[in-house]
Amino acid sequence: MAWLRRRATLLILLLGLLAVSVTPVVAASPIDQTDGFYVNPNSSPATWARNNSGDERATRIQSEIGSQPIARWFGDSSDIGGAVADYVGKANSHDKLPVLVAYNLPGRDACGGHSGGGAGSVGAYREWIASFAAGIGNRPAVVVLEPDALGDFSCMDDTAIQERLDMLRYATEKFVEKSPNTWVYLDGGNAGWVAPETMADRLDAAGVRGTRGFAVNVSNYYTTDSSVNYANSINTALGYSAQFVVDTSRNGNGSNGEWCNPGGRKLGVPPQVGGEAEMLLWVKTPGNSDGECGIAPDTPAGQFDPDLAIRLIDGT
């Protein structure tokens, strides 16, 4: 009988070891792993202020915008993995949390038209986003995934929409696989664009349940309150409480219904953890043009314009 007791004891020990071996490893929060957000010294407003120190606007632009933690946008690159790794490495060396934007879907900004471009094919995008995620690796980071991607359906056919959803789901899987300490937020549009029930369906189809959550108001002007209400409505439609972040970079005066360089807008509250959302972030770079439109008709999308920056500082 003694040998039976020994076998039973060994079996219990073996089962205990197996239970330990299959316990999932939960990644630590990237916020808890770092000491504040990373401020990019080479953001477009910081670079402009540094290169134009004799301009009377430079000090204000640097103080109000260039010194803030602003997300860095990454598009097509021959070495996206290296570019991302370099940026995240610099943030990591200062114990700071970088915020990145992945913006390279084929046919991006398909309906708006001002920021067109992106990868040349589905295969090219898959390779690009896998390299992007690998560039982050195990280091802590926040990624906003493909602004406008789920709102920009009106000029796309069913095949193109399904391809886009498949690419976004693939992207979410690559971040889980290759960058486990990254919080990824799928872009969820803004309060004036797509009904929350429709956006919830699109987010679900794009794989939001495999991410940290979603982002709202990216590159737009809706107030934080209206953006939070919109995000909460999306969560109601989703049927669970996904985390969300709000872009507050230019929402200080709210929206006047225009999205492309409208006048009278203002900087919003600086980036922070909390604030009715998981985080309030500056995803869009204040002073970077939305396109050749509005109060900057001669400034291409993505190009820094000091006059736009000053008007956002002053709210004019």
TrEMBL record:
Q: Keyword Hydrolase, does the record have it?
A: yes
UniProt keywords, alphabetically: Carbohydrate metabolism, Cellulose degradation, Disulfide bond, Glycosidase, Hydrolase, Polysaccharide degradation, Signal
What SUPFAM superfamilies is this protein classified in?
A: Glycosyl hydrolases family 6, cellulases
EC assignment: the record states: 3.2.1.-
Catalytic residue list: D148 (proton donor)
Report the leader peptide range: 1-27
- Which residue ranges does UniProt annotate as crossing the membrane? none
**One term of GO molecular function:** hydrolase activity
Q: Does the keyword DNA damage apply?
A: no
Instruction: Identify the domain of life.
Output: Bacteria
Q: Which PROSITE patterns match?
A: GLYCOSYL_HYDROL_F6_2
**PANTHER family found in the cross-reference section:** 1,4-BETA-D-GLUCAN CELLOBIOHYDROLASE C-RELATED, PTHR34876
Q: Which family does it belong to?
A: Belongs to the glycosyl hydrolase family 6.
Q: By what name is this protein known?
A: Glucanase
**Source organism (scientific name):** Haloechinothrix salitolerans
